[in-house]
Amino acid sequence: MNIIIVGGGKVGRALCKDLSLTDNNVTMIELRETVLERTISRADIDGFVGNGADIDIQKEAGVEHCDIFIAVTPEDETNIIAASIAKNLGATHTIARVRKPAYATHNEFMHESMGITLMINPEYEAASQIVDILRYPGALSVENFSDGVHLIEVMIEDDELSGLMISQFRQKFPNLIICAVKRGEEVIIPTGDTMIKRGDHLFVTGEQDLLANFYHVTGKKKKRLKNTLIIGGSRISHYLIDMLKDISMGIKVIEINADKAGELSEDFPEVVVINGDGSDQEFLQEERIELFDAIVSLTGVDEENLLISLFARRNNLSKVITKVNRTDLINLIEEDPSHAFVTPHQLISNHISKFVRSVGSRAHSDIEGLYRVDNNQFEIIEFHITEESELTNQPIHSLPTKLDVLIANIIRNGHVIFPTGADDMQVDDHVIIATTRKYLTSLEDILE
């Protein structure tokens, strides 16, 4: 496919690297020549220096032959205008990163009147992920798929799971599937003979109530989080406060900027907002940090967020969530089962990659969900099977599937099936695949 990306920030660079690894012709438009040159040197792409909302620049980049046009500059207005122009010049699909609530709430108008296929809000996506993690305080990460199927990441300590074989786990929890095991730097798709070890990260799929039972039986169930301390009054904080109100959670916000603190107080009069430095440990002690169940660090500085989170860990908070943009910093922090990380630019990069793969997939299966782990070492993909699929009505054991591919779940008419070799896939099923293979675009790609 022909793909044009406007904007050479973190998201734009990540998309160039990802999308250029497959059979796509990727072109970047970027105002800063040095940024463009650096991106071209690291990914197999073409590039044009200029304003992505400029008609002449778009024509020069070949937008009339573009399958997918993606605008991810820091400016909402630039992204909206660029995507609308691209659609009018002939681009088949257009995507715009839009962060301001005033724009983000008008998806239908943007689609029908301005021709924007998909609008993505990184702050909203980050807030949604934070809420999911707060709902599962024993999990390091949470992802939602169709019909109530969740994927959770848990860290194994000295508990009853340590030393179990995967086959024994299946006997104990027949309606849960361990899709992958992360051990050190390696991610593996387990077999029945794989042993669970202390320090492993397990990626488990199942329905919400069954996962809750899993938490209870294994001792990983923590008390419901009743109150949360948010450090930083960013856009993510606005969305997060709004979402947390729906689950009746007490909230206190600390914001260093007096004007921002005042705006938050006006927008959310029921929330306690303190004007102060959330990175000051003495100040946090004065605010009785130890009395909170959870803390979410959302300042604009990664290092500050990490230091705040480490201080919260020392005070034994049940859940610590840290926003980071530089994922390499995470490796500097000692692992802790209570500590989760959120990276907004990765969230929307994954979202856009899912859309691109879905557009590029063959007609017999559509990609409806995509979740990635550890720099794309491992993926969980949700496919929707159409009538053209060649894999329907055959026992799974008869399919010559590739190594490192696991059919984790089949969702049929709202019911979740944890498949054995005797089960089959049918038209209109949603099938969840776990794999360490890269860039599957169709369910048929799981076959040798």
UniProtKB/TrEMBL annotation:
Residues 1-120, 225-341 form the RCK N-terminal domain. GO terms for cellular component: plasma membrane. Gene3D superfamilies: NAD(P)-binding Rossmann-like Domain, Regulator of K+ conductance, C-terminal domain. Residues 140-220, 368-448 form the RCK C-terminal domain. Keywords: Ion transport, NAD, Potassium, Potassium transport, Transport. GO terms for molecular function: potassium ion transmembrane transporter activity. It holds the Pfam family TrkA_C. InterPro entries: K_uptake_TrkA, NAD(P)-bd_dom_sf, RCK_C, RCK_C_sf, RCK_N, Trk_Ktr_HKT_K-transport. It comes from the Bacteria. The keyword Thylakoid does not apply. This is Trk system potassium uptake protein TrkA. It comes from Dolosigranulum savutiense.
